[in-house]
Amino acid sequence: LQEKEELIEEWQPEPLVPPVSKDHPALNYNIVSGPPTHKITVNGKECINFASFNFLGLLDNEKVKNAAQASLKKYGVGTCGPRGFYGTFVDVHLELEERLAKFMRTEEAIIYSYGFATIASAIPAYSKRGDIVFVDEAACFAIQKGLQASRSNIKLFKHNDMADLERLLKEQETEDQKNPRKARVTRRFIVVEGLYMNTGDVCPLPELIKLKYKYKVRIFLEESLSFGVLGEHGRGITEHFRINIDDIDLISANMENSLASIGGFCCGRSFVIDHQRLSGQGYCFSASLPPLLAAAAIEALNIMEDNPDIFQTLQGKCKRIHRALQGISGLKVVGESFSPALHLQLEESCGSRENDVKLLKRVVDYCMNSGIALTQARYLEKEEKCLPPPSIRVVITVEQTEQELDKAASLIKEAAQSVLN
């Protein structure tokens, strides 16, 4: 017994968590005071906001705020219960679903209370163990989590490389011929984003649809960045490519970017959407969207429908800053010229990811000190399937004036010169 006691005395448990240095970026955050609208006050300094995904500038819109307040007075903050259990309000939740379906020209829409959970719930609602999902390597984190939850066989194809996707589809076809009985019960999906969060470029939808019909697979489209941005009326990538929306099996998008609210939605044919009402985890088990946020989203949709010119304006501003950012020594611009979220990556790495991140942080800090708020793209490095290179993200909104866009571009140039050379 004495020996036991001595052993216990000597025992030094290992620390539960590894030690973290005080200057770790996660422990040193920028503090925002006041509403993060077109102007944002960071660490007590007023900057022009190039960091929030407030593409259509609706975060500070009076009409949106009034709609939310009216709903708050009528319903309070919400029911704190899921949609299926006394969580549904007719004139906000059902109206928002109806409005989204009508806006997207689909039969039905379903809303979720959290943007990230939308696609992460939608994928495992359809794709199960044994099914096969062909997914772009650059897919965002929410898609990755949805795939993980579905436990399906995941086949990654090179970013936007249709030849690589076709190679995988052909291989699968050969496999299926060996075991036709198994092939009959296996579902196949392609999951892509309209505008990629991690790269800022657009998916080649017309070619994807050809492959869909040739190899009999279903297409899921994540449109969080392209909804309310692309197309004449902001309907997203299908409108951008003039593609019939019925060719897509499911579209999902969050309402946290263009609509400046919270939550997300999926839309498509009724039989597809209805299935999620019983098997979309985020829909069944999360409290419904607070009615004031649903009312804000409805008002944001009204504004989108009343001002279709807003999308041309946004595209013009994206193209302007995209042009202005070309040719900065040491930085390269990644993303389409019409994407409202661009990435600036280092032309050459300094050898380690950590040093690259520190270098880019110095560029961001330089801009912040001169009144331009930018942000670095953040990733959970251990969790990402294909970790994108470090980058600075520049977000363009309708509210930024041409002078502000030019100022931001010249400041980034100046910062790159001072930090990188």
Structure keywords:
421 residues; alpha/beta; Aspartate Aminotransferase, domain 1; Aspartate Aminotransferase, domain 2; 2 domains; seven-stranded mixed beta sheet; four-stranded mixed beta sheet; 16 helices; 44% helix
Description:
This protein has 421 residues and is α/β, with parallel strands linked by helices. It has 2 domains: 25-59 and 309-420, Aspartate Aminotransferase, domain 1; 62-306, Aspartate Aminotransferase, domain 2. It is built from 16 helices and 15 strands. It has helices at residues 2-10, 62-75, 83-87, 90-104, 115-126, 141-150, 162-178, 180-184, 205-215, 237-240, 270-279, 281-285, 291-306, 309-324, 353-369, 402-420, and strands at residues 32-33, 39-42, 45-49, 108-112, 132-136, 153-157, 188-193, 218-222, 250-254, 264-268, 331-334, 341-346, 372-373, 375-376, 391-395. The strands form 3 sheets. The protein has a 7-stranded mixed sheet, sandwiched between helices. The longest helix is centred in the last third of the chain and has 19 residues, at 402-420. Pathway: Lipid metabolism; sphingolipid metabolism; Sphingolipid metabolism. It holds the Pfam family Aminotran_1_2.
